[in-house]
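Exercise 3.2. Students should predict the tertiary structure of the chain below and write it as structure tokens, then compare their answer with the key that follows.

Predict this chain's 3D structure.
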Amino acid sequence: MTDALLGRFPTHIVVDSSIWDVSKWWDQGGHHHTWPPRRQIQRWCGHEVRALLAEVSAVFPRSRVAFRTAPVTAWQSPTKMNAGQDAPTIEVMTECIWNHTTRASPASPPRLYGAYDMIPYHELVDRLIAEECNNGQVRGACVGRVWGDGRHPGPKAMGLYTDALLQWIAHPDAALYPF
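Answer key:
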């Protein structure tokens, strides 16, 4: 289908389902349980993300596939308004994903499940928070400098993400980050 729409297959594909999955867990009754939902997060990063990436790779066998870590939100606790998309939950999810990466050598970029590239959006936003938010204190004017609405990263964060994507496309075997 993509070949018919674009005239060719995409060369690069970035995948991330983190925020959607958190909202699904919340809607399925997560707000009645301990949060963050560690059991669901372990299943997600151990099996569901791997299956999603394998499916994308099977559908687009000529495309380079990467997983994008989810940037944190400005919210520090889960609520109905944010559908459980609070910073502590995103942190646990990101840590779980990084625990499934390996490196061929110390100088090589990390590979998720030994097979997929990583786009460090979460880490780029964390760095921006450290720079913009008085030692990481997420409140007041800081929220407007990092996020557009508390959930979606604003222009500075999007610029960092775009730079990372362009670096990944231009230099696919270079480490995008010193993390």
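Discussion points: The chain has one domain: 12-170. The chain is about 45% helix and 10% strand.
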